[in-house]
Amino acid sequence: MSQLLALEGLEAGYGPLTVLHGVSFGIAEGERVCLIGRNGVGKSTTLKTIMGLTDYRRGSVAWKGTDVARRSTVDRARMGIGYVPQTRDVFPSLTVEENLIAGLRNRPASEIQHAYQLFPRLQERRNNPGTALSGGEQQMLSVARTLLGNPQLLLLDEPLEGLAPIICEELMHAFDQLSQQHGVAILLVEQKVQEALKFAQRALILDHGAVVHEGPTAELIEDPSVLDRHISVAAVPGQTH
Ligand SMILES: Nc1ncnc2c1ncn2[C@@H]1O[C@H](COP(=O)(O)OP(=O)(O)OP(=O)(O)O)[C@@H](O)[C@H]1O
Predict the structure, then answer these.
(1) Is any atom of ligand 1 closer than 6 Å to the C-beta of 45?
(2) If one looks up domain 3-85+134-235 in CATH, what number appears?
């Protein structure tokens, strides 16, 4: 598998606040990676920095070998990085279908069918306005709209937040399909650590703006002491989150 994304010594923040203090990791084509850690350690900031949405200080964000750290967010999206923010940016006054059309840019309208295949619920609700959607449906719509940009890497920021277990399962199943059938690489930030570990092949643990552990998820499932040390007792498998 060749490398898609490589971060090296990345430092970034907001105005005078530096949040990332030298983040380094890579993601290969089609790989499933989760980024976990306590609240406020910089997980969302890492995703935002990959997209160019924070104040960049130093380090590199290499996309297929080219440093894009100073490129615009739109450029990065066009190059194949899809970002689904924690805020689920759905246009509330537009219907589901209109929201999807807004994500098409210059791609043919027929591509919306792919979104409906992945999330049949969206087809059922195609004429409903964004305001009439449940949290889970909004999340599906946000993911589906990002996918219309045909990304090779999908950055997902806490997609399961506040959703019922059955909806979480539906979403995780869709992410699995994207990965297995379409080869989309996924970087998942998720507070539901067990779901993240089950889904991903490799885990990164972030603490104080730096990666403090990197390895196969199977190792963390087998030896939860690492999680215990870096995250919290509540994240240990078998205990409720
Ligand atoms: N837009 C912003 N302006 C200023 N500071 C911010 C902004 N967004 C986040 N921060 C700060 O950056 C730090 C890291 O936040 P970030 O959202 O990346 O953490 P996180 O690991 O994703 O946490 P959580 O799991 O709670 O979402 C926090 O101290 C937060 O208050």
Answers:
(1) yes
(2) 3.40.50.300
